[in-house]
Design brief:
By secondary structure, this protein is an alpha+beta fold. The chain is built from eight helices and 20 strands. The longest helix has 21 residues.
Length: 398
């Protein structure tokens, strides 16, 4: 029998990391909160599953550095409240091409201007410090000392448990069929109908399906990413390795395609190191993720060549390949905004593969928008209508 409930202050649709963060922060403020998720929890269909994400300070845009500084603090607060260790400091290696003498590159300016603790390593120093790797030639390596690994799965569970502790409610297996926006918002799912004073939408790769009927046609694309894990030839070689991002890689087939390779130490699966491309295959929609034609062996071939050249301590064929979904905007900047007609509806989408680390701050912003409070950041670069404005700026993909 379908249920009906109209006793909520706010409904949050989408129990990924940003939805969970938002719902938790609402409930902590005393807001009667319902978190709806279309799949049974936990699940691996969206963008927040898995056990690890990179948490780093360095971003080319000052506003993102400010946001991630606050996120670091909020992750620490979550660890304390949940009594669970979520973050492990490893440092992060940013591998770039050597700049010409007397010239600094974009990342040098970021580290200097934002006062991020770091040190520079030559290729020789890098290979002497860490075993199982080979980087010969003109590389400039920056070790960001405070970066590390977020335990992604644990973070989701912490938010969900604390949401319940603060009186919130979670309903999974509740695929949304319709959203009726008025002074109060009605949400119809396959299991029931729910009414609340306000609505936060954090639908991840299903954003277009839910926002388009509300009059918001956004330029979002869904990308299927191969999350690859590579077997250590000697177990434990990369257990204490830093996270890394190599921005020097080029696609041998498409020279115009920037190909960032990133990796995390071998503590998610014993003996397996996570090394991936920060891009994948554009697909029609999130529900078509597992169709055979959406598998992409070219990306795995690029990674295999990369492993052979730079990580001889790993087997050059992936031991595990897991799919993950990115939802991209044209400028790789998230959309965080309020509905232009219904101010009691706010939404966040288009994280472009870089949203997890910012989840505490993005959740805070969404709750501030819902409550009509002052937002701590200038959201001009995050507005949904920026794509209709001439001369709009772009941000870095990494």
């Amino acid at each position: 029998m379908a249920s009906f409930c109209s006793d909520f202050d706010c409904i949050v649709i989408g129990a990924g990391i940003i939805g969970c963060s938002s719902a938790y922060q609402l409930a902590k403020k005393g807001c009667k909160t319902l978190l709806l998720e279309q799949f049974r929890l936990p699940h691996t269909r969206g963008s927040s599953h898995g056990q690890s994400r990179i948490l780093r300070y360095a971003h080319p845009e000052p506003i993102m550095v400010d946001m991630v500084r606050e996120s670091f603090q909020m992750w620490q607060q979550l660890e304390k409240e949940a009594e669970t260790k979520i973050f492990r400091q490893t440092g992060m290696l940013l591998i770039d091409s050597e700049s010409p003498p007397q010239e600094s590159n974009e990342w040098d300016k970021v580290f200097a201007n934002c006062d991020i603790p770091h040190e520079y390593l030559t290729s020789k120093e890098l290979c002497a410090r860490y075993r199982g790797i080979e980087f010969h030639g003109n590389y400039k390596v920056t070790l960001e000392k405070m970066a590390g690994v977020l335990a992604a799965g644990k973070a989701l569970v912490c938010y969900q448990n604390l949401l319940l502790k603060h009186g919130g409610k979670i309903l999974d297996g509740e695929k949304v069929l319709d959203i009726i926006p008025k002074r109060k918002v009605t949400v119809k799912t396959m299991q029931g109908t729910y009414v609340a004073k306000s609505l936060i939408l954090t639908p991840g790769p299903w954003a277009s399906q839910l926002l388009h009927p509300l009059g918001l046609k956004l330029p979002l694309t869904v990308e299927r990413i191969n999350t690859c894990y590579w077997h250590e030839k000697v177990q434990g070689t990369f257990l204490k390795f830093p996270v890394f991002a190599d921005v020097t890689v080029r696609d041998p087939v498409n020279a115009e395609r920037d190909t960032v390779v990133y990796g995390l130490p071998s503590d998610e699966y014993p003996g397996l190191m996570k090394v991936c491309l920060h891009q994948g295959t554009t697909i029609a929609d999130a529900d078509s993720r597992d169709r055979p034609e959406n598998g992409n062996m070219e990306d795995i071939d690029i990674l295999s060549r990369y492993i052979r050249h730079h990580f001889p301590g790993l087997d050059d064929l992936p031991h595990i390949v897991e799919p993950c979904l990115y939802t991209n905007t044209p400028d790789h900047v998230p959309i965080i905004d309020q509905h232009p007609v219904f101010p009691n509806i706010v939404f966040a989408c288009g994280m472009s593969g870089a949203g997890f680390k910012f989840a505490p701050v993005y959740g805070k912003i969404l709750t501030q928008l819902i409550f009509g409070e002052h937002v701590d950041y200038d959201l001009s670069a995050f507005r949904y209508n920026r794509f209709n404005e001439p001369g709009g700026g772009t941000m870095s993909k990494l």
